[in-house]
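User: I'm new to structure prediction. If I give you an amino acid sequence, what do you actually give back? Let's try with this one:
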Amino acid sequence: QVQLVESGGGSVQAGGSLRLSCVASERILFSRAVGWFRQAPGKDREFVAAISWGSGATNYVDSVKGRLTISRDIATNSVYLQLNSLKTENTAVYYCNTAPGSVWSIRAMSPSADFASWGQGTQVTVSS
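Assistant: Good question. You get back a string of structure tokens that encode the predicted 3D arrangement of the chain. For your 128 residues, that looks like this:
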């Protein structure tokens, strides 16, 4: 099973930017999608964005459209999440994960029930 390691989090002021990285331990199949999720304090883990490994198609939750950009580098088995115009409510631990199918498939999966495992995540803290 491919393992994913997140990095790039940190503490920024509102309006700032961060670039999160997710590196896979082995080649990701073109039939899979990779998603970013986040878990804010006291809340459930939720979907943020996804990218199709084969086509590069993307999908975002409405609340982040225009401020977040997901991208991939097939050569290095890496997925990135560019966070711009950060708000205090974006404070959370950000995780990545992968699943067979499309960006719509991974978006529809339950973070608490449908994934076999999760990595450590990377903390993003936005202050006012």
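You can read the tokens as a compact description of the fold. Here is one thing that stands out. The chain has one helix and ten strands.
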